[in-house]
Amino acid sequence: MTEPRDVTGFAPEDLELLDREREVEIETWSMAGEPRRTVIWVVVADAVPYVRSVRGERGRWYRDIRTERHGALHVAARAIPIRAVPADDEAGIAACSAALERKYAGDFSLPSMLRPEVLGATLRLEPG
Residue 30: its pLDDT value, please? Predict the structure, then answer.
């Protein structure tokens, strides 16, 4: 029997885990094919996981995943395969920002994730 899946394709328990964990590691690949991991924030809004680069388009992991759209999130001793898609619509960017404000309220790093110059580095995650 297969587990029930969320409409996004992620298992509900994966979405709950991503929503709960404060930090995850994103695994990307360099141009030379070497895997790299970077600690990032992840949020879930309306059953959709989002990530955003605090360095905007200059972030190494962001550039990597834009080149090779497949990667993985490492969280709680698990690897969740992902595919990153630009969230270049106002609704997706706003949903990510609202989820960041909810999840990381009071964190001194939060304002850097909401700067206008990094909003374009928002990615929606799909199952990989």
Answer: 87
